[in-house]
Amino acid sequence: MNMFSLQNGYLFSFVVVVVLLAGSSCDGRLVDKVNVKVINGLSDGKDLNVHCKSGDDDLGPRHLLSNQFFDFSFELHFFGKTLFFCRFWWGNEAHWFDIYDDPRDEHRCLERCWWLVKENGPCLLNRQTGEYDLCAEWNKDLPGKGRRRTGNATQDYLNSPKIRN
After folding, report:
1. Which one of 4, 23, 114, 128 is most buried, counting C-beta atoms within 10 A?
2. 66-107 tens-digit pLDDT
3. What is the mean pLDDT of the chain?
4. What is the 3-state secondary structure (H, E, C) of the chain?
5. Is 45 left (phi over 0), alpha (psi -120 to 50) or beta?
6. In angstroms, what is the C-alpha Rg of the chain?
């Protein structure tokens, strides 16, 4: 066997491996795109205001009437670091929640991460029961004012003067 055909064999094998990896999810994920739905489940017909962001995207504020929803889709970050967080407010109440946090939600949401927002916190649609029975508490309030950038996108967003006022 000559050296030229051996090199071509290695090159062919390398190309096949690259094509196979490009056609699959290299990070072992079951899905590459997620749909998040936020539903106003507040009692007594209250309107819900929502503003969701990630480190890269600002989805803008939304005003949801009772039982209305908005949804958005995104491609997952290759290294498993996708985070979308939302501020929720109605009446004199204001809260925030990480609506999609990759380490927490990758396997429990798969391609659909649908949340029913109630006064005491958001509840995730349970794929096994078909009910919104996986409820979470609101993220904890942040202490003090005049904080510097923390490196945490959610905290930095909530600390911004536009949000505090």
Report:
1. 114
2. 999 999 999 987 767 889 999 999 999 999 999 999 999 988
3. 78
4. CCHHHHHHHHHHHHHHHHHHHHCCCCCCCCCCEEEEEEEECCHHHCCEEEEEEECCCEEEEEEECCCCEEEEEEECCCCCCCEEEEEEEECCEEEEEEEEEHHHHHHHHCCEEEEEEECCEEEECCCCCCCCCEECCCCCCCCCCCCCCCCCHHHHHHHCHHHHC
5. left
6. 21
CA angle 147, 93, 154 (to 5 degrees): 35
Q: What is the largest CA-CA distance in the chain?
A: 81
Residue with token string 């055909």:
5
CA-to-CA dists, residue 139 to 5, 19, 42, 95, angstroms: 61, 42, 18, 7
- Say if residues 123 and 138 touch (Cβ distance below 8 Å): no
The amino acid present at 104, given as its one-letter code, is R
Tens digit of each residue's pLDDT (9 = 90 or more) over 10-61: 555 554 433 334 334 444 445 689 999 999 999 999 999 999 999 889 999 9
- C-beta atoms surrounding 58 within 10 Å: 10
Q: Which of 113, 33, 28, 34 is nearest to 79 (CA)?
A: 28
pTM of the entire predicted model: 0.69
Dihedral sign for Cα atoms in the order 97, 104, 74, 154: positive
